Amino acid sequence: MMTPTERTIARLPAHLRRYVVGQEYAAYTSRDQAVWRNILGSLRGHLADKAHPDYLAGLEATGIGSECIPSLDEMNEKLARMGWACVGVRGFIPPAVFTELQALGVLAIAADIRTHEHIEYTPAPDIVHESAGHAPIIANRRYAEYLKACGLVGFKAIASVEDQAVFEAIRNLSVVKEDPDASEEEVAHAQARLEAASASRRYVSESTRASRLYWWTAEYGLVGAVDAPRIYGAGLLSSIAEAQHCLTPAVKKLPLSVACADMDYDITRMQPQLFVARDFEHLFEVLEAFESTLSWKRGGDFGLTEALRARTVNHLVLADGLEVTGQVLEMLAAPGPVAPGLDTALVRLEGPILTSREGKSLDARPWNGPALVAFGAGTLPERGAFKLSLESGLELEGFATDGGQVLALRGRLAGRELELPAVAKLFVTPSLPSVAGGPSDPETWDRWYGELSAFAEGDGEEKARSRKALALHPSLAALYREVRKMRETHTVKPERLSQIAAAASDFPDDWLLRAEVEELRRRV
Questions:
Q1: Does 129 count as an annotated binding residue?
Q2: For residue 447, is it within any domain?
Q3: Residue 382 marked in a binding site
Q4: Cα distances (Å, whole numbers) of residue 257 to 248, 270, 289, 522
Q5: Which of 429, 444, 435, 392 lies closest to 413, judged by CA?
Q6: Is residue 139 situated within a structural domain?
Q7: What is the pLDDT of residues 296-340, one digit of tens each?
């Protein structure tokens, strides 16, 4: 019989399953459990009257306790009652994967846990942030709906080639910072790589703006009165330092508006300002206003221009609902308007080309040649010679074949001969309702081209995780195990605790063991 988590994974499309990892609960050390206890104990005490009222009840409702790292199986049992689920992942995953999972109502929970050196704040995703931060507020039905809607917006937004470089640099920096053997030079190099990637951005993409909206709401959001807000953002709920700092006068509080999408953030430091939502309904108002600015809602020339400058694979949604995936390479303007919001007569897309409807591929395999989308009222024959004269001034002629390709293609625009590919896919549509980010059918696209699989975990992340496990001295690990056993069996031995405290002096940098011992002493 499958576990709740295995059932969740089985329901995922294959292109998302590749990012899922097992929790390997037995691999958590006793010190890992102590890290969890310390953080959750501090957060529960501090946030009782500072977090959104649903926070404490939400911890229990989603299977998150204070004494031990939560089991994803137990969380899935609880989350299923709310229409949600969770899966384990390793560190940062591609934004398109994260947002698609969220749109499906699946929390991506980093299976690793931060080191005790980073107990107040970690540069890498970990199980504290993803479970104790994101999950509890899902108990609020309306907020849970917002998370799904926000995930869909992020998934549809168009990302640029530079966005990918920035993502890889952020991921690399988080790995290096969590590696106990990383040198100062390696950290500096990783930081410089991120700065260089960020500086290379030619413009602020839709995807970047969507990530900012997510950051200032789901990650670092406050709710309520501007002068007396409560915390609901996962980044604040899961960070001791941030939770203590965010409500102080040192942090400027701004009423939430769509302007937050234009406010950049720095993941390496505490935020100097935060945005306050009136209530969770306010989140939907801002999301709707933001959504109306995106290509997948506006389409037309706006969407084509965004896709052209992004230099990434995106998809066009034609008037009849047909979806055409490819990279927009060229736009040819018509002498006058073609349709509302559209002055383009012809668009050239670079292959591979995938056609689909409602996200389901229509092709046995993608077309590896170029494609053209002509705008105007006209119909191509299924097979045979054709001539089209569109109201845009575009004239096309050639021979249509059974496979949807056209041969011997020639074209004129406003009396000028066009340089067109001799063989191409050709689509004709009177309008362009939408241009959206990524392939229309990620499952089929990934199966043929494996672009999403390029994420495959590198040696750097694997080595960093191994080093973190080996960094714990065997003698220190044994002391942690002994303290943990006393806690779990409720057999506290004062004399032995004194001996452990004395032995802990051999590890002056490990304050957490001493804190665990003192907490047990207070129970006697």
A1: yes
A2: no
A3: no
A4: 21, 21, 9, 48
A5: 392
A6: yes
A7: 999 999 999 999 999 999 999 999 999 999 999 999 999 888 888
